[in-house]
Amino acid sequence: MDTLFQRGLDDIIKGVRHQQSSTESIFMSRVIEEIRREIKSTDLQTKSTALQKLTYLNSIHFIDMSWASFHAIECISSPAFSHKKIGYLAISQSFSESTPVILLISNQLRKDLKSGNEFEVSLALDCLSRIGTVDLCRDLASEVFILMSSSKVFIRKKAIGVVLRLFEKYPDAVRVCFKKLVESLEGSDSPIVSAVVGVFCELSAKDPRSYLPLAPEFYRILVDSKNNWVLIKVLKIFVKLAPLEPRLAKRLVEPICDHMRKTGAKSLVFECIRTVVTSFTEYESAMKLAAEKIREFLMEDDPNLKYLGLHAISIMAPKHLWAVLENKDVVIQSLSDEDPNIKLESLRLVMAMASESNLMETCRVLVNYALKSDPDFCNEILGSILSTCCQNVYEVIIDFDWYVSLLGEMSRIPNCKKGEEIENQLIDIGMRVKDVRPELVRIARDLLIDPALLGNPFLHRLLSAAAWVCGEYVEFSRNPVELMEALLQPRTSLLPSSIRTVYMQSAFKILIFCIHSYFLQKEDMTSEVSDLASKRECSESSDLATGKALVQSDQDEGFNPRESNQSYEYPFSCRYWGWTEANLDREEVIASRVVEWVHDGFSEELGPVSVTAQDRVPIPDELVLKENLTDLEAICGGVELPAPGSFSLTSPYYGESAVFSVSNLQDEEDSEPSTESTSLLTEHRKRHELYYLPSEKNKIPANDYPPANDPSSSINTNDATEDLVKLADQSLVSKRKPNHAKPRPVVVKLEEGEAAPVVSKKPELKDDLLSGAIHDILLGNEAKAASSQSNPSDKSSSKRKGKAKHVDLLDSKENLAVGEQPNHENPSSRRSKHRGDGKQKSKKSKGKKNGDGRER
Amino acid sequence: MTVEKQQELIRSVFGVLCSRAEKVSNFMEVDSIFGPDSRLVYKHYATLYFIFVFDSSENELAMLDLIQVFVETLDKCFRNVCELDIVFNYNKLHSILDEIISGGQVLETSSTEIMRAVEEISKSESASNSISLVPKTVSGWRSR
Fold first, then answer.
1. Number of domains within chain A
2. Which one of B19, B107, B113 would you mutate to disrupt binding with A, by most A Cβ within 10 Å of its Cβ?
3. By the CB < 8 Å criterion, does B18 face chain A?
4. Which subcellular locations apply to this protein (chain B) (predicted)?
5. What is the pTM of this model?
6. φ, ψ for residue A619 (rounded to 5)?
7. Which CATH number do you get for residue B89?
8. Predicted ipTM?
9. Could you tell me if residue B6 is inside a domain?
10. Which domain holds residue A782?
11. Is the predicted pLDDT of residue A198 greater than 60, yes or no?
């Protein structure tokens, strides 16, 4: 193809813009075809134009260009500047550690770094800074070092920009370049200083301690400089350094406050504020000045400044609540601002201000806001209320009745998505705070009765909590029959089966309670209980009897879909209902004993189990725990059992003391092949085919609240201990709060098990090398001994041995120039000898930098 | 970074920004997109959004200023810059940007300085282009 007719980049762009969306892909593939052809040309002009087009397509239209890497290398070897530029851009965009040909550019980079044309140098430096790999950095560190002393500011500046990447990839470069870097800190306002403090800012973010010796330099810059960028960076460095050295902080306070007062630049003021509130919190006057300035920010109309002001206050908030309270009016007003950032910040601040005394009012105000806000913010508000209130085992709450009713109210807010959190809290409070249980049951009843809630998927988990609460604490309810009806209403078919499981368990518990009371009444006929009451009980239980019948008939009719994927629990409870019903009339004595016995089982209170409880149970000697239950397959055959033995009606698993390790349970069941239950099951299954799951994996969703006294329910052996709470084996510590008008109910704090062992983070090897190297340079011999001990990495120890052993100590803190550098084991040492301020650049001896015989 | 990942990042940023109202603050936390401790600042000029992503080593308001510097430089470079200028001058755009930020560091914040450098670069480019054009036309002419 005649190159004179090659389409340039402009043509491509125009072409793309003129395409319809349908023809675009055809056009693109044509263009790419063209490019592939042209790029193979030997003529560099053609090649580079093609490469330019490809780069454009890659960055704007996401066309892959990794196949063109070699062509890019050819382009940069062209003598023409424009080709070089195109080539370098392509390389910066597309090369990465994994590009196979990346090593080939090393030589070209070196040539360009040595070039007389400053722009060629800058191209190479830019490229290196973006894609420098370990090898490239190692090879080119010396060139960069030379450039750092170039006569042109332009180049020096860029060389400093590259240094960061060098240090990151090849820490040994520190030995070469660091001093030069430090020297460049001289002067206060040149662009060089600006670049250097930028580099130090990044470096000190990772490892502040190494740069502490440079503090005097930074201090000088802080005081002298007039350039805002430089000042901002220096402040950021000091934020990291100040905590390490209290004397430093003392000296810094004055200049920083000075800047805050005098400067006109908002960015600098903000940075000063941020520095003060982060690191200088003990200095009252500085904090007060910062608070003043923050107030100015808050009064501005500019949303950016407002947001930043609120942000600064929220940094102050934990320890300096006075600042927040001072600005309370602005904060509350900002809750209704249209800017989401501002709203979030002010929400956080409002919650920070919440304390015992104003909690109720605060929550009331917030819930009102939530009702008026958009869904996201509404959920943010609810989330923050929930998390603040549950902190520290509900520290801030005095009146639990109020809180529980607030939870109920929150669940009814239309946009509420916090069902899970509310669920957790309901159960948690129910378990910990005995006195609130009646109220809790009342709230739960309200939730269960309302059929509208059943349709809201976010609230399903909440409803399961409500059901559990009702079942567990049924003795506090005023009208169990109502609860029963609520639990059994037809609309519950909308709930997922895991929730329905809980419903059924609760229904069962309520049933037992009622029947038990009925029998009690019957036994105490002669007692003082009024006839009305006894009649009520009797009628209740007979209602229940008919209720059961209703349930059963319902089940036969329209509930087939329900049955087809409901839990194993059903056949079991069905049995009991059937049995109890049958026996009510005839063998009441037996029935009453059964009921009594179940009821006793239910009345025992179970607390949650810590995650590590399982591990604490000593394994008896003869017992061999198998890792997985593959043996089970053999035993159970094709029948899917949720847990072996759950259907056996033998009593050992009930009524026994609750201190029963789950694993023991499982293993006992394992060890007897439970053929008895298998056959029972198959028989039952044949009879009630319809109501069983199809023979596929029975997924048992994990419940994370106590299915009280049903140790066989939902056991998935692997997560039994984690997901299910079963046994109380902790000591209960009660917590009391003194002196309140209404005595605060006792909140039970359960002792936590041991925390999971914390894996200590191993520091990055590279960072170690870097800080080690910097230590060596700055602090000399003494520090070297210390650092090589403290530094766990052994890889570099051989290097340390070889390295300069007698670096002279710094004469004074001001003068960081180091004295003579002795020879290393390596004769071709690159070290230049500095005296004084190192202004004698001409005296440098340029040694050859090679691998230096050092192992990495 | 693969092209797919790049595309995904850009899409998520777009998703985050297109729902922003007009007079709100220009910052966003983008931890979910770019990792921890990252924020972005954006400025909306007519149909264009300029977005800078940065971390805690940069001051927010300074970043806002930087966008301003960038746009001013574009203006000086293209004389009343408009969207088409940016679309058709991909290379020049990169030249300018490379002068401001190199290796992730802000190197130059004065738009005069940046302009000076960019002009020199353009001069070198066109100089080298004209040199290479001559042999090409000659050989093209000769081959006929």
1. 1
2. B107
3. no
4. Endomembrane system
5. 0.66
6. -85, 125
7. 3.30.450.60
8. 0.85
9. no
10. 765-855
11. yes
